[in-house]
Write a structure and sequence with these properties.
Layout: H1 12-27, H2 31-40, H3 44-57, H4 62-72, H5 76-89, H6 95-104, H7 108-121, H8 127-133, H9 139-182
Helix pairs in contact: 1-2, 1-3, 2-3, 2-4, 3-5, 4-5, 5-7, 6-7, 7-9, 8-9
Length: about 190
């Protein structure tokens, strides 16, 4: 893949044509087209649109492409958008890539967004990395990591409550069955 930091090219018409093509391909959810745009288009504005569209489509095949963009694109803006998109997609296959970016990206906005995305996905595998990111030199990264850790804790709490609710409901049903079994049989009412 080739990445540049060119915001827009000298031929805006060409980029407008690519954006128009993206609109057409979005309707058909043509993931391969957007993956190709990301890997071949040098314009920053076009790549931002492609990253955003891929998150809207939410297809698993986009995870490696967005992960590559997040790792190799020279623009912190694009890497940030890729992290955000991975978080919005909510796919657990993105977790290792987001962990890597949250801990090692040179840009604090990418580390911050990666930590926030990990919280959005809510996968317990991210806990150790988020604990480490909660000690980052950047206050924004620390804040996002702490918020994501809180989200992981809430998910765990919610799951334990759901389990307890199911157990309590099962116990209540069983208790009522036992009471019903001990109760004298009622006769059918007569008119």
């Amino acid at each position: 893949m080739r990445y540049t930091e060119r915001v827009a090219g000298p031929e805006k018409e060409k980029e407008f044509a690519v954006l128009a093509g993206m609109e057409e391909k979005y309707e058909g959810k043509d993931v391969s087209f957007f993956n190709r745009v990301l890997s071949e288009e040098p314009s920053l504005v076009v790549r931002v649109h492609a990253v955003t569209v891929l998150s809207e489509i939410g297809d698993e095949t986009s995870v490696p492409v967005l992960a590559d963009v997040m790792k190799k694109d020279p623009s912190p803006l694009i890497r940030h958008e890729a992290a955000f998109s991975l978080g919005q997609m909510g796919l657990k296959s993105a977790v290792p890539h987001l962990i890597e970016a949250a801990l090692n990206d040179p840009s604090e906005i990418v580390r911050h967004e990666s930590a926030a995305a990990l919280g959005s996905i809510g996968d317990e595998r991210a806990r150790r990395a988020l604990e480490k990111a909660s000690k980052d030199e950047s206050a924004e990264v620390r804040g996002s990591a702490i918020a994501s850790l809180f989200n992981l804790d809430f998910i765990s709490y919610s799951k334990s409550r759901e389990k307890n609710d199911v157990e309590q409901l099962s116990a209540e049903i069983e208790r009522k069955r036992k009471i019903a079994a001990k109760s004298p049989k009622k006769k059918m009412p007569r008119p």
